[in-house]
Amino acid sequence: MSGSAPDIAPPRTRRTAGLRGDVNLELWGWLFMRISGVVLIVLVFGHLIVNLLIGDGVHAIDFAFVGGKWSSPFWQVWDLLMLWLAMIHGTNGVRTIINDYAERTGTRITLKALLYLAFVVTVVLGTLVIFTFDPCPPGSPADLLPSICFA
Fold it and tell me: Is pLDDT larger for residue 115 or for residue 59?
């Protein structure tokens, strides 16, 4: 019969055909969003408590505070994990929105390419900053160094 709607499988039907085989990427994406959301809550609130409530609070946050914090491998890993999980979580969420609302294939591909490019640039630069940050670079003029540095 012409003009009739195609048959649509019930929502819980497992898809076994196609390039992906039995792997349901949307299920794994859904699970990742729930698990990473819970982990991010712990990471973000831990970050806020340490940076804003303990010690002198927000008034203590300056170049020296960040330099001292990132001199510890614990805080480097903490902030790196927070950066990576937040970026993957957010990118997956925006990818879902693009898939839901971008009707034309070309628009969808362009938007997702820009999204993935922004993800890669942010993650690479953020990771580099966390692991290469040096508040006291050697050879710098003493009058330009923060007070925590010994010239």
Answer: 115
Choose among 1, 142, 144, 131: nearest CA to 72: 131
What single string gives the DSSP state of each residue in 52-84? IISTTGGGG-SHHHHHHHTTSHHHHHHHHHHHH
pLDDT (mean) for 16-26: 63
pTM of the predicted protein model: 0.74
Q: Which residues contact 112 (CB under 8 A, 6 or more apart)?
A: 95, 98
Q: Is the distance from CB of 34 to CB of 101 less than 8 angstroms?
A: no
From the number of C-beta atoms within 10 Å of its C-beta (0-12, 13-18, 19+), residue 22 rates as exposed
Give SS3 for 131: helix
pLDDT 10s digits, 34-50: 999 999 999 999 999 98
Closest CA to 76 of 147, 128, 7: 128
Domains and CATH numbers, the chain: 25-144 (1.20.1300.10)
Please give the Cα distance from 10 to 57 (Å, whole number).
54
